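Incident review: delayed structure delivery

Summary: a single-chain prediction request sat in the queue longer than the usual turnaround. Root cause was a stuck worker, restarted by the on-call engineer. No data loss occurred. The affected request and its eventual output are reproduced below so the record is complete for anyone auditing the incident later.

Affected input:
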Amino acid sequence: MHIREELQITKPLEPGHEVALALLLTREYVARLFDECLYEPEGLSDQQFNVLRILKGGPRDGYLVKELRCRMIYRFADVPRLVNRLEARGLVKRCENPADRRGSRVQITPKGLALEAKMFARHNALCQQVDRCLSPEERDALLGLLERLRNDHRTQLAELQKG
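Output delivered after worker restart:
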């Protein structure tokens, strides 16, 4: 269904508006799919799951909070609060950082590893569903276009933050 039909917009859209709406609505569909099928059944948010995945794939001694932030999909998250919530559930633990006493390292616990492993198959299946209607060529083209958009907007954000 065309974006204008789906959102019941009767007037023509500017090209930038149409692209922005299409991206936002697509993101909403994918987010809802993951929320309902993966995160909500386990009582996690997408950002908490992202932290678990980062820690699972990271070094044994874990990451500093600032290192987690750089690796997250949603870069403006309140990472210390996410870590606090995961720690309260016993999914991660903070350890003293011998190199810098001002910051602690965050590590995934055995309980966190077990939860991530439990969610792994569902996560994989959902990821495969995301682009199942695309041919390999279409997938590659979409990834290239999205990368180009991200690169352009990353540059715009950097310029906004400078001044």
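Verification: Residues 136-162 form the longest helix (27 residues).
Action items: add queue-age alerting; document worker restart procedure.
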